[in-house]
Amino acid sequence: MNFQLSIPVSIELCSKKDKNSWNDFVLKNKNSNLYHFFEWKQIIEKTYGHKTYYLKAVDNSGKIRGILPLAYLKSLIFGKKLISLPYFDIGGVLADNIETEKKLLEFSIELFKKLKADSLEIREKKESVYLKEAIFNKDEFEKKEYFIKNTSSDKARMVLNLPQKATYLFNSYKSKFKNDIKKPFRENLKFKIGGKELLDDFYSIFSVNMRDLGSPVHSKSLFENILDLFNEKARIGIVYQEKKALACIFTIGHKKTLSNPWASSLKEYRYLNTNIFQYWKMLEYACLNGYEYFDFGRSAPLDNTFKFKKKWGAKPEKLFWYNFSMENSSLESEKSKFGGMVKYWQKIPVSVTQIAGPQIRKNIGL
To answer: What CA–CA distances, in Å, run from 317 to 18, 90, 125, 307?
Structure first.
């Protein structure tokens, strides 16, 4: 990462009036990602009511030199977690130089201690020089009141480099996979891309899929708020057989990358290659709209989702999730806490999970 020369900065909490200057910094910084935008503060607060702490580093003239978005998830079951950023693969620090990055992180650590949170998690898409040194500098951190480690394990974002035309992408695939892509066309399936007018169909499929996986579903208002605040950057895609919705995909664009945080399909129709169809159509859309990268989202190498994304030509980009926790604290993962409920959750009517699910899901940072 090419950092600018260090400039003295002070750390401040942001308010609504900082939105434009914050987003201007995000847009101008080449290392920014989708989840750095100020809109996520508004979305998380409006959807789930969580307290957020959006930190900015400003120089003597008041110009922003670095940012760190944080959300505070607090519940009796899942504990108190300060995360940058919950529900998504990345977030983290965006700064002009290492010294500014360090000051933002040090401020976040003090905030974590002041809130008496169980953990502070900074989700980066690249290795942090400062945090890497912190992890391995044992002499320094033996004096601290907390431990720090990289908890991302083998998880990676699967990212596909896109050609200028979708036909180039199609021609790069083996014959069998080409036939898999063609099958939904032979079955006369249709694909529609739009916004809020497709939200009901999206959520109906997404809710069924999450219930079948045994996972609490996000609130429908999360997607509604994203569509409202990101406008044309956020798109929903739906696969139809006549008027019946069979599969859904949700994407958000930032600069040269189209990201796909959510996708689902009804299992009884997967023999029609509905999932393959919707990804092909969305990749086609990405190429037509000048995107250079498609982010399939997080997977682990042994997962079927990893293998599926790899078929498209996506390559893994390692994630770096840095977790701070207090000494002698034993943090049980959110997944393990809910794990015993999975088989029971799968038996609950979808309509019930749409009501109860968001109350649980809002406190799960994954």
So the answer is: 32, 12, 8, 14
Question: Is the CB of residue 306 less than 8 Å from the CB of residue 300?
Answer: yes
Q: Which residue has the higher pLDDT, 325 or 288?
A: 288
Cα–Cα dist 148/125, whole Å: 17
Give me the domains of the chain, ranges plus CATH numbers.
10-152+320-331 (3.40.630.30), 157-318 (3.40.630.30)
> Could you report the per-residue pLDDT of 74-132, keeping only the tens digit for each?
998 888 999 999 999 999 999 998 899 999 998 999 999 999 999 999 999 888 777 76
For 136, other C-beta atoms within 10 Å of its C-beta total 9
333: pLDDT strictly greater than 50: yes
Q: How far apart are CA 363 and CA 40, in angstroms?
A: 16
262 Cβ neighbours under 8 A, 6+ residues apart? 206, 248, 249, 250
Q: Angle 200-73-205 (CA atoms, 0-180°, nearest 5)?
A: 20
CB 121 within 8 A of CB 333: no
Whole-number Å distance between alpha carbons of 306 and 308: 5
Three-state DSSP class for residue 100: helix
Give the burial class of 184: count Cβ atoms within 10 A of its Cβ; 0-12 exposed, 13-18 middle, 19 or more buried.
Answer: buried
What length is written for the chain?
Answer: 366
CA distance 252 to 305: 20
At 34, the amino acid letter reads L
Q: Determine the Cα–Cα distance for residues 34 and 89; give it in Å rounded to an integer.
A: 11
CA distance 61 to 21: 13
Which residue is associated with the tokens 């977790």? Answer: 323
**pLDDT over 50 (residue 327):** yes
Residue 159's φ and ψ, nearest 5 degrees, are: -120, 130
Beta-bridge mates of residue 250: 236, 262
